[in-house]
Automatic annotation (TrEMBL):
This is Cobyric acid synthase. The keyword Cell inner membrane does not apply. It comes from the Bacteria. It comes from Marinomonas polaris DSM 16579. GO terms for biological process: cobalamin biosynthetic process. Pfam families: CbiA, GATase_3. One of its GO terms (molecular function) is ABC-type vitamin B12 transporter activity. Catalyzes amidations at positions B, D, E, and G on adenosylcobyrinic A,C-diamide. NH(2) groups are provided by glutamine, and one molecule of ATP is hydrogenolyzed for each amidation. NCBIfam families: cobQ, PRK00784.1. Residues 6-231 form the CobQ/CobB/MinD/ParA nucleotide binding domain. Residues 253-455 form the CobB/CobQ-like glutamine amidotransferase domain. The active site is at residues 332, 449. The gene is cobQ.
Length: 508
Protein backbone atom coordinates (compact mmCIF):
# COMPACT_ATOMS: atom_id res chain seq x y z
CA UNK A 1 0.00 0.00 0.00
CA UNK A 2 1.17 3.56 -0.61
CA UNK A 3 2.26 5.90 2.14
CA UNK A 4 -1.04 7.65 1.42
CA UNK A 5 -3.72 8.28 -1.17
CA UNK A 6 -6.04 11.25 -1.64
CA UNK A 7 -9.12 11.69 -3.79
CA UNK A 8 -10.23 15.02 -5.25
CA UNK A 9 -13.97 15.24 -5.90
CA UNK A 10 -15.89 18.22 -7.26
CA UNK A 11 -19.29 19.75 -6.71
CA UNK A 12 -19.77 19.87 -10.50
CA UNK A 13 -18.04 18.96 -13.71
CA UNK A 14 -15.23 21.40 -14.51
CA UNK A 15 -14.88 22.42 -10.85
CA UNK A 16 -11.10 22.05 -10.95
CA UNK A 17 -10.49 18.39 -10.07
CA UNK A 18 -8.07 17.74 -12.93
CA UNK A 19 -6.08 20.92 -12.38
CA UNK A 20 -5.78 20.38 -8.62
CA UNK A 21 -4.52 16.83 -9.13
CA UNK A 22 -2.06 18.15 -11.73
CA UNK A 23 -0.78 20.82 -9.33
CA UNK A 24 -0.45 18.36 -6.44
CA UNK A 25 1.43 15.88 -8.65
CA UNK A 26 4.04 18.53 -9.45
CA UNK A 27 4.22 19.71 -5.81
CA UNK A 28 4.67 16.18 -4.46
CA UNK A 29 7.44 15.51 -6.98
CA UNK A 30 9.18 18.69 -5.81
CA UNK A 31 9.13 17.16 -2.31
CA UNK A 32 10.70 13.94 -3.53
CA UNK A 33 7.48 11.93 -3.25
CA UNK A 34 6.95 9.31 -5.95
CA UNK A 35 3.34 9.99 -6.92
CA UNK A 36 1.02 8.61 -9.58
CA UNK A 37 -2.27 10.10 -10.83
CA UNK A 38 -5.35 7.90 -11.06
CA UNK A 39 -8.94 8.23 -12.24
CA UNK A 40 -11.09 5.11 -11.93
CA UNK A 41 -13.66 6.14 -14.53
CA UNK A 42 -13.50 8.90 -17.11
CA UNK A 43 -15.99 10.00 -19.77
CA UNK A 44 -14.31 11.99 -22.53
CA UNK A 45 -13.75 12.13 -26.28
CA UNK A 46 -10.32 13.65 -25.78
CA UNK A 47 -8.00 10.76 -25.04
CA UNK A 48 -4.29 9.95 -25.16
CA UNK A 49 -2.33 6.91 -26.31
CA UNK A 50 0.25 5.37 -24.00
CA UNK A 51 3.67 4.18 -25.13
CA UNK A 52 2.49 0.56 -25.14
CA UNK A 53 -0.57 1.31 -27.29
CA UNK A 54 -3.38 1.75 -24.78
CA UNK A 55 -5.95 4.53 -24.50
CA UNK A 56 -6.53 6.73 -21.43
CA UNK A 57 -8.09 10.11 -20.65
CA UNK A 58 -6.14 13.20 -21.66
CA UNK A 59 -6.19 14.63 -18.12
CA UNK A 60 -4.35 11.62 -16.70
CA UNK A 61 -1.69 11.94 -19.40
CA UNK A 62 -1.13 15.58 -18.39
CA UNK A 63 -1.08 14.61 -14.69
CA UNK A 64 1.49 11.91 -15.44
CA UNK A 65 3.60 14.53 -17.21
CA UNK A 66 3.33 16.76 -14.11
CA UNK A 67 4.51 13.81 -12.00
CA UNK A 68 7.45 13.13 -14.31
CA UNK A 69 5.99 9.81 -15.46
CA UNK A 70 5.18 8.16 -18.75
CA UNK A 71 1.37 7.82 -19.00
CA UNK A 72 0.20 4.28 -18.25
CA UNK A 73 -3.13 2.52 -18.71
CA UNK A 74 -3.47 1.87 -14.96
CA UNK A 75 -3.81 5.63 -14.43
CA UNK A 76 -7.27 5.52 -16.07
CA UNK A 77 -8.59 1.96 -16.28
CA UNK A 78 -12.14 2.84 -17.40
CA UNK A 79 -12.70 5.27 -20.28
CA UNK A 80 -16.14 5.95 -21.73
CA UNK A 81 -16.23 7.62 -25.16
CA UNK A 82 -19.76 8.79 -26.08
CA UNK A 83 -20.76 7.94 -29.65
CA UNK A 84 -24.49 8.67 -29.37
CA UNK A 85 -26.65 10.70 -26.98
CA UNK A 86 -27.38 7.55 -24.95
CA UNK A 87 -24.41 5.28 -25.61
CA UNK A 88 -20.64 5.08 -25.44
CA UNK A 89 -17.70 2.93 -26.38
CA UNK A 90 -16.44 1.29 -23.18
CA UNK A 91 -12.66 0.99 -22.86
CA UNK A 92 -11.30 -1.16 -20.03
CA UNK A 93 -7.58 -0.95 -19.22
CA UNK A 94 -6.85 0.59 -22.59
CA UNK A 95 -8.84 -1.73 -24.86
CA UNK A 96 -12.36 -1.33 -26.24
CA UNK A 97 -14.79 -3.99 -24.98
CA UNK A 98 -17.81 -2.75 -26.93
CA UNK A 99 -20.54 -0.13 -27.21
CA UNK A 100 -23.07 0.08 -24.37
CA UNK A 101 -26.09 2.19 -23.56
CA UNK A 102 -26.52 3.68 -20.09
CA UNK A 103 -28.56 0.74 -18.77
CA UNK A 104 -26.13 -1.82 -20.16
CA UNK A 105 -23.13 -0.08 -18.64
CA UNK A 106 -24.87 0.23 -15.27
CA UNK A 107 -25.18 -3.57 -15.24
CA UNK A 108 -21.53 -3.89 -16.32
CA UNK A 109 -20.18 -1.67 -13.53
CA UNK A 110 -19.46 -4.53 -11.13
CA UNK A 111 -17.04 -6.00 -13.69
CA UNK A 112 -15.55 -2.59 -14.47
CA UNK A 113 -14.96 -1.94 -10.77
CA UNK A 114 -12.75 -5.02 -10.52
CA UNK A 115 -10.53 -3.60 -13.27
CA UNK A 116 -10.42 -0.19 -11.57
CA UNK A 117 -9.40 -1.70 -8.22
CA UNK A 118 -6.76 -3.90 -9.86
CA UNK A 119 -5.20 -0.88 -11.56
CA UNK A 120 -5.30 1.19 -8.37
CA UNK A 121 -3.61 -1.51 -6.30
CA UNK A 122 -0.83 -1.90 -8.88
CA UNK A 123 -0.12 1.83 -8.65
CA UNK A 124 -0.38 1.71 -4.85
CA UNK A 125 2.31 -0.97 -4.68
CA UNK A 126 4.65 0.93 -7.01
CA UNK A 127 4.39 4.54 -5.78
CA UNK A 128 4.57 6.35 -2.45
CA UNK A 129 1.31 8.21 -3.11
CA UNK A 130 -1.67 7.98 -5.44
CA UNK A 131 -3.67 11.11 -6.26
CA UNK A 132 -7.16 10.16 -7.39
CA UNK A 133 -9.53 12.27 -9.46
CA UNK A 134 -13.28 11.81 -9.15
CA UNK A 135 -15.79 12.38 -11.94
CA UNK A 136 -18.60 14.92 -12.12
CA UNK A 137 -20.18 15.21 -8.67
CA UNK A 138 -20.41 12.64 -5.85
CA UNK A 139 -23.93 13.88 -5.03
CA UNK A 140 -25.74 12.68 -8.16
CA UNK A 141 -28.51 10.73 -6.43
CA UNK A 142 -29.47 8.73 -9.53
CA UNK A 143 -25.88 7.50 -9.95
CA UNK A 144 -25.17 6.52 -6.34
CA UNK A 145 -25.96 2.83 -6.80
CA UNK A 146 -22.84 0.92 -7.93
CA UNK A 147 -20.81 4.14 -7.98
CA UNK A 148 -17.21 3.51 -9.00
CA UNK A 149 -16.21 7.07 -9.90
CA UNK A 150 -16.51 8.97 -6.61
CA UNK A 151 -17.45 7.99 -3.07
CA UNK A 152 -18.12 4.38 -4.03
CA UNK A 153 -14.47 4.07 -4.98
CA UNK A 154 -13.20 6.12 -2.02
CA UNK A 155 -15.09 3.82 0.36
CA UNK A 156 -13.67 0.72 -1.35
CA UNK A 157 -10.06 1.79 -0.80
CA UNK A 158 -10.69 3.84 2.38
CA UNK A 159 -9.05 7.10 1.31
CA UNK A 160 -9.62 10.72 2.37
CA UNK A 161 -11.46 13.13 0.07
CA UNK A 162 -11.22 16.85 -0.71
CA UNK A 163 -14.22 18.53 -2.34
CA UNK A 164 -13.43 21.38 -4.73
CA UNK A 165 -15.85 24.00 -6.08
CA UNK A 166 -15.51 26.74 -8.69
CA UNK A 167 -16.47 30.11 -7.19
CA UNK A 168 -16.28 31.75 -10.62
CA UNK A 169 -19.51 29.96 -11.56
CA UNK A 170 -21.36 31.42 -8.55
CA UNK A 171 -23.17 29.68 -5.69
CA UNK A 172 -20.04 28.16 -4.19
CA UNK A 173 -21.38 27.88 -0.62
CA UNK A 174 -24.60 26.22 -1.76
CA UNK A 175 -22.58 23.83 -3.91
CA UNK A 176 -20.30 22.80 -1.07
CA UNK A 177 -22.94 22.56 1.66
CA UNK A 178 -25.44 20.84 -0.62
CA UNK A 179 -22.90 18.29 -1.85
CA UNK A 180 -21.80 17.43 1.68
CA UNK A 181 -25.39 17.15 2.94
CA UNK A 182 -26.27 14.65 0.21
CA UNK A 183 -23.49 12.27 1.23
CA UNK A 184 -23.97 9.42 3.69
CA UNK A 185 -22.50 9.80 7.22
CA UNK A 186 -19.55 7.51 6.41
CA UNK A 187 -18.85 9.46 3.22
CA UNK A 188 -19.02 12.77 5.07
CA UNK A 189 -16.50 11.45 7.59
CA UNK A 190 -13.87 10.91 4.91
CA UNK A 191 -14.13 14.50 3.61
CA UNK A 192 -11.11 16.22 5.15
CA UNK A 193 -11.87 19.67 3.78
CA UNK A 194 -12.83 21.97 0.94
CA UNK A 195 -10.92 23.86 -1.73
CA UNK A 196 -12.42 26.90 -3.46
CA UNK A 197 -11.15 27.38 -6.99
CA UNK A 198 -10.78 30.38 -9.36
CA UNK A 199 -11.34 33.18 -6.85
CA UNK A 200 -10.98 36.77 -8.09
CA UNK A 201 -10.49 39.81 -5.89
CA UNK A 202 -9.71 40.55 -2.25
CA UNK A 203 -9.85 37.39 -0.15
CA UNK A 204 -10.65 39.41 2.98
CA UNK A 205 -14.10 40.00 1.48
CA UNK A 206 -14.59 36.23 1.35
CA UNK A 207 -13.47 35.52 4.91
CA UNK A 208 -16.88 35.81 6.57
CA UNK A 209 -18.23 33.22 4.13
CA UNK A 210 -15.33 30.88 4.82
CA UNK A 211 -15.89 31.20 8.58
CA UNK A 212 -19.59 30.41 8.13
CA UNK A 213 -18.82 27.42 5.90
CA UNK A 214 -16.41 25.92 8.41
CA UNK A 215 -18.84 26.43 11.29
CA UNK A 216 -21.80 25.08 9.29
CA UNK A 217 -20.05 21.91 8.07
CA UNK A 218 -17.31 21.28 10.61
CA UNK A 219 -14.87 20.96 7.69
CA UNK A 220 -11.87 23.24 7.12
CA UNK A 221 -11.28 25.27 3.97
CA UNK A 222 -7.88 23.95 2.94
CA UNK A 223 -7.26 26.57 0.30
CA UNK A 224 -8.68 29.34 -1.86
CA UNK A 225 -7.01 29.15 -5.26
CA UNK A 226 -6.93 32.32 -7.36
CA UNK A 227 -8.16 32.71 -10.91
CA UNK A 228 -5.08 32.41 -13.13
CA UNK A 229 -5.40 34.84 -16.01
CA UNK A 230 -4.51 33.30 -19.36
CA UNK A 231 -3.99 29.84 -17.86
CA UNK A 232 -4.37 26.95 -20.29
CA UNK A 233 -3.86 23.20 -20.07
CA UNK A 234 -5.33 20.50 -22.27
CA UNK A 235 -9.02 19.97 -21.61
CA UNK A 236 -10.82 16.67 -22.07
CA UNK A 237 -14.37 17.92 -21.67
CA UNK A 238 -16.46 19.94 -24.13
CA UNK A 239 -14.62 22.20 -26.56
CA UNK A 240 -14.11 25.67 -25.10
CA UNK A 241 -15.02 28.03 -27.93
CA UNK A 242 -13.87 31.20 -26.20
CA UNK A 243 -10.48 32.36 -27.51
CA UNK A 244 -7.41 31.32 -25.52
CA UNK A 245 -5.78 34.61 -26.45
CA UNK A 246 -7.53 37.83 -27.40
CA UNK A 247 -4.68 40.03 -28.65
CA UNK A 248 -3.21 38.84 -31.93
CA UNK A 249 -1.75 40.20 -35.13
CA UNK A 250 -2.66 37.08 -37.05
CA UNK A 251 -0.75 36.13 -40.16
CA UNK A 252 -2.96 33.06 -40.61
CA UNK A 253 -6.70 32.67 -40.07
CA UNK A 254 -7.87 29.12 -39.39
CA UNK A 255 -11.47 27.92 -39.20
CA UNK A 256 -12.44 24.63 -37.52
CA UNK A 257 -15.97 23.17 -37.42
CA UNK A 258 -17.17 21.87 -34.06
CA UNK A 259 -19.25 18.78 -34.69
CA UNK A 260 -21.50 16.89 -32.25
CA UNK A 261 -18.88 14.12 -31.80
CA UNK A 262 -15.67 16.09 -32.28
CA UNK A 263 -12.80 14.23 -30.63
CA UNK A 264 -9.23 15.05 -29.63
CA UNK A 265 -9.78 18.80 -29.74
CA UNK A 266 -6.36 19.34 -28.15
CA UNK A 267 -5.00 18.78 -31.67
CA UNK A 268 -5.25 22.50 -32.33
CA UNK A 269 -4.21 23.87 -28.93
CA UNK A 270 -0.74 24.76 -30.22
CA UNK A 271 -2.36 26.72 -33.04
CA UNK A 272 -4.73 28.59 -30.70
CA UNK A 273 -1.74 29.61 -28.58
CA UNK A 274 0.58 30.57 -31.45
CA UNK A 275 1.17 34.35 -31.72
CA UNK A 276 0.86 34.35 -35.53
CA UNK A 277 -2.39 32.39 -35.73
CA UNK A 278 -6.05 33.18 -35.15
CA UNK A 279 -8.33 30.14 -34.76
CA UNK A 280 -12.11 30.46 -35.08
CA UNK A 281 -14.27 27.54 -33.93
CA UNK A 282 -17.62 27.33 -35.73
CA UNK A 283 -20.55 25.49 -34.16
CA UNK A 284 -24.05 24.61 -35.31
CA UNK A 285 -26.10 27.35 -36.99
CA UNK A 286 -23.13 29.74 -37.09
CA UNK A 287 -21.91 31.49 -40.22
CA UNK A 288 -18.55 30.31 -41.53
CA UNK A 289 -16.05 33.17 -41.89
CA UNK A 290 -13.37 33.44 -44.59
CA UNK A 291 -10.15 31.60 -43.77
CA UNK A 292 -6.71 30.76 -45.07
CA UNK A 293 -6.88 27.23 -43.71
CA UNK A 294 -9.71 24.89 -42.71
CA UNK A 295 -9.02 21.98 -40.34
CA UNK A 296 -11.51 19.11 -40.24
CA UNK A 297 -10.94 17.48 -36.84
CA UNK A 298 -11.33 13.95 -35.53
CA UNK A 299 -14.73 12.46 -34.80
CA UNK A 300 -16.08 9.59 -32.69
CA UNK A 301 -18.97 9.18 -35.15
CA UNK A 302 -17.64 10.05 -38.58
CA UNK A 303 -20.72 9.36 -40.70
CA UNK A 304 -23.14 11.32 -38.51
CA UNK A 305 -20.67 14.21 -38.18
CA UNK A 306 -20.19 14.19 -41.96
CA UNK A 307 -23.96 14.52 -42.37
CA UNK A 308 -23.90 17.37 -39.84
CA UNK A 309 -21.25 19.24 -41.85
CA UNK A 310 -23.27 18.87 -45.03
CA UNK A 311 -26.36 20.16 -43.27
CA UNK A 312 -24.39 23.17 -42.04
CA UNK A 313 -23.16 24.08 -45.53
CA UNK A 314 -19.55 23.00 -45.18
CA UNK A 315 -19.40 21.07 -48.46
CA UNK A 316 -20.16 24.16 -50.54
CA UNK A 317 -17.85 26.23 -48.35
CA UNK A 318 -14.93 23.81 -48.83
CA UNK A 319 -15.37 23.75 -52.60
CA UNK A 320 -15.31 27.55 -52.80
CA UNK A 321 -12.49 27.78 -50.26
CA UNK A 322 -10.25 25.49 -52.33
CA UNK A 323 -11.27 27.12 -55.61
CA UNK A 324 -10.04 30.49 -54.37
CA UNK A 325 -6.70 29.24 -53.06
CA UNK A 326 -7.51 28.15 -49.51
CA UNK A 327 -6.00 25.07 -47.89
CA UNK A 328 -7.48 22.16 -45.94
CA UNK A 329 -6.15 19.67 -43.39
CA UNK A 330 -8.17 16.62 -42.35
CA UNK A 331 -7.12 14.83 -39.17
CA UNK A 332 -8.26 11.24 -38.52
CA UNK A 333 -12.06 11.35 -38.93
CA UNK A 334 -11.67 14.61 -40.85
CA UNK A 335 -9.18 12.84 -43.14
CA UNK A 336 -11.73 10.07 -43.76
CA UNK A 337 -14.43 12.66 -44.60
CA UNK A 338 -12.20 14.14 -47.31
CA UNK A 339 -12.21 10.77 -49.11
CA UNK A 340 -14.78 9.29 -51.48
CA UNK A 341 -16.50 6.58 -49.41
CA UNK A 342 -16.90 5.60 -45.74
CA UNK A 343 -18.15 2.08 -45.01
CA UNK A 344 -19.19 0.62 -41.65
CA UNK A 345 -20.00 -3.05 -42.38
CA UNK A 346 -20.10 -4.04 -38.68
CA UNK A 347 -22.16 -1.11 -37.41
CA UNK A 348 -19.36 0.06 -35.11
CA UNK A 349 -20.49 3.69 -35.03
CA UNK A 350 -24.27 3.43 -34.86
CA UNK A 351 -25.14 -0.26 -34.28
CA UNK A 352 -26.55 -0.53 -37.84
CA UNK A 353 -24.51 -2.85 -40.04
CA UNK A 354 -23.56 -2.14 -43.65
CA UNK A 355 -23.97 1.62 -43.52
CA UNK A 356 -22.00 3.79 -45.90
CA UNK A 357 -21.63 7.46 -46.69
CA UNK A 358 -20.24 9.44 -49.58
CA UNK A 359 -17.34 11.62 -48.50
CA UNK A 360 -16.46 15.07 -49.78
CA UNK A 361 -14.42 13.46 -52.56
CA UNK A 362 -11.28 15.59 -52.34
CA UNK A 363 -9.01 12.56 -51.77
CA UNK A 364 -9.19 9.40 -53.97
CA UNK A 365 -9.64 7.15 -50.94
CA UNK A 366 -12.08 4.71 -49.36
CA UNK A 367 -12.28 4.01 -45.62
CA UNK A 368 -13.68 0.83 -44.05
CA UNK A 369 -14.28 0.71 -40.29
CA UNK A 370 -12.74 -2.40 -38.69
CA UNK A 371 -13.31 -3.92 -35.27
CA UNK A 372 -9.68 -3.62 -34.20
CA UNK A 373 -8.72 -0.08 -33.25
CA UNK A 374 -5.31 1.32 -34.18
CA UNK A 375 -3.60 2.76 -31.09
CA UNK A 376 0.00 3.90 -31.58
CA UNK A 377 2.42 6.63 -30.66
CA UNK A 378 4.25 7.71 -33.82
CA UNK A 379 7.54 9.42 -34.66
CA UNK A 380 9.02 10.37 -37.98
CA UNK A 381 9.38 13.27 -40.38
CA UNK A 382 7.21 15.23 -42.75
CA UNK A 383 7.62 14.08 -46.33
CA UNK A 384 6.24 16.89 -48.46
CA UNK A 385 8.08 19.63 -50.34
CA UNK A 386 8.53 22.72 -48.23
CA UNK A 387 8.89 20.90 -44.92
CA UNK A 388 12.68 20.79 -45.11
CA UNK A 389 15.03 23.57 -44.06
CA UNK A 390 16.32 25.84 -46.81
CA UNK A 391 19.93 24.94 -46.06
CA UNK A 392 19.54 21.13 -45.99
CA UNK A 393 17.42 18.18 -47.03
CA UNK A 394 16.48 17.39 -43.42
CA UNK A 395 12.71 17.23 -43.22
CA UNK A 396 10.85 18.48 -40.16
CA UNK A 397 10.41 16.03 -37.30
CA UNK A 398 6.86 15.07 -36.44
CA UNK A 399 5.37 13.20 -33.51
CA UNK A 400 1.80 12.20 -32.77
CA UNK A 401 -0.51 9.31 -32.05
CA UNK A 402 -3.15 7.30 -33.87
CA UNK A 403 -6.61 6.40 -32.51
CA UNK A 404 -8.86 5.06 -35.25
CA UNK A 405 -10.89 2.08 -36.39
CA UNK A 406 -10.90 3.06 -40.04
CA UNK A 407 -8.55 1.51 -42.59
CA UNK A 408 -8.09 3.75 -45.62
CA UNK A 409 -6.98 2.69 -49.09
CA UNK A 410 -6.31 4.79 -52.16
CA UNK A 411 -7.89 4.26 -55.55
CA UNK A 412 -5.99 1.99 -57.94
CA UNK A 413 -3.58 3.53 -60.43
CA UNK A 414 -3.43 6.77 -58.46
CA UNK A 415 -0.14 8.51 -57.73
CA UNK A 416 -0.05 9.42 -54.05
CA UNK A 417 2.11 12.04 -52.37
CA UNK A 418 2.39 11.12 -48.71
CA UNK A 419 2.30 13.54 -45.80
CA UNK A 420 4.87 11.87 -43.54
CA UNK A 421 7.42 9.08 -43.31
CA UNK A 422 7.10 7.38 -39.93
CA UNK A 423 9.40 5.05 -38.02
CA UNK A 424 8.34 1.42 -38.34
CA UNK A 425 9.79 -1.49 -36.35
CA UNK A 426 8.98 -3.96 -39.14
CA UNK A 427 10.57 -1.79 -41.83
CA UNK A 428 13.31 0.20 -40.12
CA UNK A 429 15.20 0.95 -43.33
CA UNK A 430 12.37 2.43 -45.38
CA UNK A 431 9.87 3.48 -42.70
CA UNK A 432 6.11 3.77 -43.21
CA UNK A 433 4.42 6.22 -45.54
CA UNK A 434 1.49 8.01 -43.90
CA UNK A 435 -1.24 10.37 -44.98
CA UNK A 436 -1.80 12.32 -48.16
CA UNK A 437 -1.01 15.65 -49.76
CA UNK A 438 -2.72 16.68 -52.99
CA UNK A 439 -0.84 17.30 -56.23
CA UNK A 440 -1.55 21.03 -56.01
CA UNK A 441 -0.41 21.12 -52.37
CA UNK A 442 -3.73 22.47 -51.06
CA UNK A 443 -5.04 19.42 -49.17
CA UNK A 444 -3.40 17.38 -46.41
CA UNK A 445 -4.88 14.29 -44.79
CA UNK A 446 -3.35 12.43 -41.84
CA UNK A 447 -4.23 10.00 -39.08
CA UNK A 448 -1.77 11.72 -36.73
CA UNK A 449 -3.32 13.43 -33.74
CA UNK A 450 -1.02 15.96 -32.04
CA UNK A 451 0.60 16.76 -35.36
CA UNK A 452 1.06 20.46 -34.44
CA UNK A 453 2.66 19.78 -31.05
CA UNK A 454 6.25 19.24 -32.24
CA UNK A 455 7.85 22.65 -32.88
CA UNK A 456 9.50 21.57 -36.15
CA UNK A 457 6.29 20.15 -37.60
CA UNK A 458 4.34 23.21 -36.46
CA UNK A 459 6.83 25.55 -38.13
CA UNK A 460 6.76 23.55 -41.36
CA UNK A 461 2.97 23.35 -41.50
CA UNK A 462 2.60 27.08 -40.86
CA UNK A 463 5.06 27.68 -43.68
CA UNK A 464 3.00 25.38 -45.94
CA UNK A 465 -0.13 27.32 -44.99
CA UNK A 466 1.47 30.59 -46.07
CA UNK A 467 3.16 32.03 -42.97
CA UNK A 468 6.72 33.14 -43.71
CA UNK A 469 9.10 33.22 -40.75
CA UNK A 470 6.51 32.11 -38.20
CA UNK A 471 7.44 32.69 -34.57
CA UNK A 472 8.96 29.66 -32.85
CA UNK A 473 6.58 27.95 -30.42
CA UNK A 474 7.30 24.82 -28.37
CA UNK A 475 4.07 23.41 -26.98
CA UNK A 476 5.79 21.02 -24.53
CA UNK A 477 7.74 23.90 -23.00
CA UNK A 478 4.56 25.96 -22.76
CA UNK A 479 2.70 23.13 -21.01
CA UNK A 480 5.51 22.62 -18.51
CA UNK A 481 5.63 26.32 -17.67
CA UNK A 482 1.84 26.35 -17.16
CA UNK A 483 2.05 23.35 -14.82
CA UNK A 484 4.75 25.12 -12.82
CA UNK A 485 2.66 28.30 -12.70
CA UNK A 486 -0.32 26.30 -11.46
CA UNK A 487 1.80 24.48 -8.87
CA UNK A 488 3.38 27.72 -7.62
CA UNK A 489 -0.04 29.31 -7.15
CA UNK A 490 -1.36 26.23 -5.33
CA UNK A 491 1.71 26.16 -3.07
CA UNK A 492 1.10 29.78 -2.09
CA UNK A 493 -2.54 29.19 -1.21
CA UNK A 494 -2.56 25.74 0.40
CA UNK A 495 -0.46 24.21 3.18
CA UNK A 496 0.80 21.23 1.22
CA UNK A 497 2.95 19.76 3.99
CA UNK A 498 0.01 19.85 6.41
CA UNK A 499 -2.20 18.23 3.77
CA UNK A 500 0.28 15.38 3.30
CA UNK A 501 0.43 14.82 7.06
CA UNK A 502 -3.38 14.87 7.25
CA UNK A 503 -3.63 12.20 4.55
CA UNK A 504 -1.06 9.98 6.22
CA UNK A 505 -2.83 10.25 9.57
CA UNK A 506 -6.20 9.43 7.97
CA UNK A 507 -5.00 6.04 6.74
CA UNK A 508 -3.16 4.99 9.90
Amino acid sequence: MPAFSLMIQGTTSDAGKSTLVTALCRLFVRRGIQVAPFKPQNMALNSAVTQDGNEIGRAQAVQAYAAGLEPHVDMNPILLKPNTDTGAQVIIQGKAVGNMNAVGYHEYKSIAKIAALDSYHRLAEQYQAVLIEGAGSPAEINLRARDIANMGFAESIDCPVIIIADIDKGGVFAHLVGTLDLLSPSEQDRVIGFVINRFRGDISLLQSGLDWLEERTGKPVLGVLPFLKGFHLESEDAVAKSPIKTDTNAKLNIVIPIMPRTSNHTDWDALRLHPDVQVTLVGANESIPPADLVILPGSKSVQSDLAFLRQEGWEDYLNKHLRYGGKVIGICGGYQMLGEQLLDPLGLENQHANTQSTGFGFIPMETVLKEEKQLKQRHGQLAFSGSSSRSSNNYAKVTGYEIHSGVSSFSANTTINHFALLDNEQNKENGEQEGYISEDGKIIGTYLHGVFDHPEALQALLNWAGVDQAAAFDYDQYRDSEINRLADSTEQNMNIDALIEQCRNFQQ
